[in-house]
Write a structure and sequence with these properties.
Pathway: One-carbon metabolism; tetrahydrofolate interconversion; Amino-acid biosynthesis; L-methionine biosynthesis via de novo pathway. The chain contains eleven helices and ten strands. It is α/β, with parallel strands linked by helices. The strands form two sheets. It has an eight-stranded parallel beta barrel, surrounded by five helices. The structure holds flavin-adenine dinucleotide (FAD).
Length: 316
């Protein structure tokens, strides 16, 4: 079932959804499944699974220094299959441009179709470690809108080197949106025009980067609507859980953490208190977003569930 179909069926009721990250090098898969299990009580219609590009390590092989590609978090596809089997929910794999040729992407999309996957989050991906900016693989896509175009073309029967009357895929495509602007874009306005390219290429819904100030989300939605982006915009939420995140989240994701939240975290004297502050802040955010009628609250779980469970208990 398409994600957008779930939104239509919900008739204005806000749904609960989550994102998980494949474990490091295949470790603790059982823990991941155990962590998700308690969240099933809140009936997520879909679970998103991130995709991680290759990184490189240098290693001495027979006296020569070699650059060897490794994938630190493999298994996106396998985890999707396991989730669908065990929890009977839609698994939404993230598909990235970085590190793939268009031909490799086509093969990957066909594999997704064979597995019964109907929804995809289409992303560009970040630059490789050590690179100053994103460089596509030779013969690969440079921006997410090109990946969306490839998926839309496939849905219409157009493969890279073949046209058929009808090809059996009918993927529903999500894309990323940034209420506080993507870090490379010169302005939010320019970034929104690029977001529109993705929607014009066929994206069916948008999932936002995390934000801690709902005003940012509401303004973003208003600006999207003003330029003709009319698809559902799912707010992404992450409960803050450590003091260190006050520094690293803005560094990694280029976002602001409101003064009041910073103050509340800094006033804590124990880690458990910080977690509680994060839970309460996210509950307040969630409550206001639900009142505004958002289609879903999408939680970045970092593959842990206790704080998200506490939040969902209070909201759903
Ligand atoms: P794009 O939409 O291609 O945008 C990238 C930049 O280029 C923006 O500044 C945009 O304004 C500009 N731009 C876009 N199109 C054009 C164009 N045609 N011409 C000129 N400029 C253009 N990363 C992962 O590696 N794996 C994941 O699983 C993953 N999941 C994510 C999930 C969500 C919900 C979000 C918000 C991000 C996720 N990311 C993930 C991170 C994402 O890959 C990075 O933020 C990346 O830098 C941008 O990806 P994008 O798809 O938004 O890129």
């Amino acid at each position: 079932t398409k994600i957008t179909e779930y939104f239509n069926q919900a008739k204005g009721k806000t749904l609960f959804s989550l994102e998980i990250i494949p474990p490091m090098k295949g470790s603790n898969f059982g823990d991941l499944m155990q962590n998700i299990e308690p969240l099933m009580e809140f009936n997520p219609p879909f679970i998103e699974v991130t995709y991680h590009r290759e990184e490189y390590i240098t290693k001495e092989v027979n006296g020569e220094t070699k650059r060897i590609p490794i994938r630190k978090r493999p298994g996106t596809l396998g985890i999707c299959a396991a989730i669908m089997q065990k929890f009977k929910v839609e698994a939404v794999p993230h598909v990235i441009c970085g590190g793939f040729t268009k031909e490799e992407t086509e093969d990957f999309l066909i594999d997704l179709h064979y597995l019964g996957i109907e929804n995809i989050l289409a992303l560009r991906g970040d630059q490789e470690k050590g690179e100053t900016h994103f460089i596509p693989k030779s013969g690969g896509h440079a921006f997410a809108n090109e990946l969306v175009e490839q998926i839309s073309a496939m849905n219409q029967g157009k493969l890279l080197y073949e046209e058929t009357e009808s090809f059996p895929t009918n993927f529903c495509v999500g894309v990323a949106g940034y209420p506080e602007k993507h870090f490379e874009a010169i302005s939010l306005e320019e970034d929104l025009q690029n977001l529109k390219r993705k929607v014009d290429a066929g994206a069916d819904y948008i999932v936002t980067q995390m934000f801690f100030d709902n005003r940012k989300y509401f303004d973003f939605v208003d600006k999207c609507r003003a330029i003709g982006i009319n698809v559902p915009i799912i707010p992404g939420l992450k409960p803050l859980s450590t003091a260190r995140q006050l520094q690293i989240l803005p560094e990694i994701f280029f976002l602001d953490i409101p003064e009041d939240l910073q103050k509340a975290v800094k006033a804590c004297t124990a880690p458990e208190q910080i977690k509680q502050v994060g839970i309460e802040w996210t509950i307040a955010q969630g409550r206001e977003l639900m009142q505004a009628g958002v289609p879903a609250l999408h939680f970045y779980t970092m593959s842990k569930s206790d704080n998200v469970q506490a939040i969902a208990k209070s909201l759903f």
